[in-house]
Structure formats: C-alpha cells, structure tokens
C-alpha cells in the first residue's frame, strides 16, 4: 500500500511539497556562519529525528486510512489493453477470546469515586 500511496502522492504533485518540507532549508545550509556548538547540534539532531518520526507516523496513519476506505487495489493494464481493477481482500479479523464461565464477573467501578 505504501507503493500505491507513493504513486498517488507523486502523481498529484504533493511529493514536491513533502520533499521541500522534509529537507532543511538550503539558505540555512549555505550560510557562512560559524559551526554551532555541540549542544546545539544535538538539539538540532533531536528535532530532526522527532520530525522524521512524526512524518513516518503521519504517513502510516494515512496509509491505514486509505487501506480502510479503499476496497480496490491499484488498476493494472493487461497486455491486451484491458484495465483490471481488483477488489482488495479484507484484513482477517482476529477472534475475540470467549469469557471464562468459571471466572467471577468483573465488578463495575463507579466513575464518580476517586
């Protein structure tokens, strides 16, 4: 599904915007300022790592949302020119464990009590 998402983003022109947002500013990289101290470099590295992880989590959520809403795979063109759009297989549902009849029932807690 990530490949399909990449095609969608690349095809709609959003890849340029994502690339620009993900890259550090060229103006800052080309500045002839003295190198920052080690403490600032580690802070910049932490910020960059946090932004990268946030982007990955966001793309994963978009991927999951598209998987949940789109019941079809990407169309493919067959050698004879036909266009084939396959229906996606739904994800297998894991069965819920049955409650143990020998276990005592769970007591309900009062949300107003602390």
Overall form: flat
Q: Rg, please?
A: 25 Å
The biggest beta sheet, please?
2 strands, antiparallel
Strand content: under 5%
Tally of DSSP β-strands: 2
pLDDT below 50 for ≥5 consecutive residues: which ranges? none
Task: Describe it.
This protein has 4 helices and 2 strands, in the order ααααββ. By secondary structure, it is mainly α. The protein has a domain at 2-29 and 37-84. A two-stranded antiparallel ribbon has the order 1-2. Strand 1 and strand 2 form a beta hairpin. It is flat, with a radius of gyration of 25 Å. The model has no long low-confidence stretch (mean pLDDT 72).
Give the SSE layout.
Elements (H helix, E strand, L loop, with lengths): L1 H11 L1 H9 L3 H5 L7 H32 L6 E2 L5 E2 L30
Antiparallel strand pairs: 1-2
Short account of what is shown:
Helices cover 50% and strands 4% of the residues.
